[in-house]
Amino acid sequence: MKIDPKIESILNKALAGKEINREEAVELVKINEHSYEMYALMSVANTLTRRQFGNKGEIFAQVGINVWPCPRNCGFCSFGADWNVIESRVELSLEEVVERAKEFENAGANAIFLMTTADYPFDRYIKIAKAVRKALAPDMPMVANIGDFTEEQATELLDAGFQGVYHVFRLREGKDTGIDPASRLRTLEAIKNSALDLSYCVEPIGPEHPPEELVEEMFRGKELGAVNCASMWRVPVPGVPLAKLGKISELALAKVVAVTRIVVGNSIRAMGVHEPRMLPLLAGANQIYAETGPNPRDTVEDTSRGRGFSVETCKNMLKEAGYIPLEGPSKVFQGRWRFKEKNPGELKSNVRVLVFGTQPPCARCQQAEREARQAAEKFPPGRVTVEKHDALSELGQKYGVMLTPTVVVNGKTVAVGRVLKESELVEIIKKEAGV
Fold first, then answer.
1. For an engineered disulfide with 221, which of 96, 152, 200, 398 has Cβ 3.0 to 4.6 Å away?
2. Any idea what the CATH number is for the domain that residue 287 is in?
3. What is the tens place of the pLDDT at every residue in 16-48?
4. Domain check: are 69 and 172 in the same one?
5. Is position 15 within any domain?
């Protein structure tokens, strides 16, 4: 079996840990979904994710707080006032939001998202968020999903107990949505200038979106420093204007997930897909969403009785895809936690770990990288970086790599031709960092 040499070159570049450019990403999005190239693309993205996250999967759980006719009238949203799909006003009470968030946590969700319509009162949202924060475990991340806001309001979100924000520049923002694109960009800039971590998504994807539009949003998320990227298809909700354009296939969604995964590289801490589906989980995604309450892709007041997935259903899907569902709070969203005063046992300086292996990687090289990444997770986010490199690369030659796997810590070779166990590497990192 042979694949197109141009596609093969781009995929080999990605496997080697090198960044691809916009033009190369467009070439990948143009791949025929029923070709050999498509399955090679999925395989590479799948390999990158499992290599980086060690087959760990995550579940983010979203509580929709309200639904009422929204004046923004986005062409894909069931909440749009002019579409008359949702005519009633439903708003969960503070107590109901707290209860549902707590239920998600108890069920094993790794992060809690709180979503409202774009016109929901900000002060009321902050009050609810503070109550939820008080009810959850101190290390359970909270992520806001609301309308546009200012830098001052970003600080209020942090003060209320949020670590992250889900905010995106939707495809054809300002044309298919009733939201000013400039306002959307100002909010993304406000997030970037704050301590909030950004969750970004290429969405909502329809069959009319060309590769160039999709790729532009992939790179926007990367350039904004998103810690979590995702891809989401558009659901053709009956009665909304864009429903007539139809829906992309699950295979097409998997392709966009795969290319997004390759574009963002190791800059992210999780790769998501929405809605949860199996093929994208075999094409680079390792994070999916559970939902309750109102949902703009649904026509029922509580999506847990409609399109929404439970935490248990998400766990089963992750397991079926070969992932081990993460237990406990996610480390994806850190917010102000990353600035906590150092404990005596924490690192005094950053540490760089290089793992050299064969290309494509053998089982022992993959295990060496897994052990290194697991060791890095024992320390605060960002303090220990792990990089995978080809033993035959220029960097490999610099360090005189002859046998694989070889592990280098801050320029010092610490293991040659063997798998360095997590516990061993933790001690080496501590010593190197002066703990």
1. 200
2. 3.20.20.70
3. 889 999 999 999 999 999 999 999 999 999 999
4. yes
5. no
Tell me the pTM.
Answer: 0.80
Are 56 and 200 found together in one domain?
yes
Mean pLDDT, to the nearest integer, of 150-157? 94
Which residues are CB-neighbours of 121 under 8 A, at least 6 positions away?
Answer: none
Mean pLDDT (the chain) is 93
Looking at the structure, do residues 169 and 305 belong to the same domain, yes or no?
yes
Which residues, 6+ apart, have CB-to-CB distance to 169 below 8 Å? 181, 184, 185, 188, 217, 220
Q: Which amino acid is at 395?
A: L
Residue 403 structural domain: 341-433
**306, 174: one domain:** yes
**DSSP string for 220-253:** HHHHTT-SEEEEEEPP--TTSGGGGG----HHHH
Q: Give domain status of residue 425, yes or no.
A: yes
Q: Is residue 259's pLDDT more than 70?
A: yes
pLDDT at 145: 97
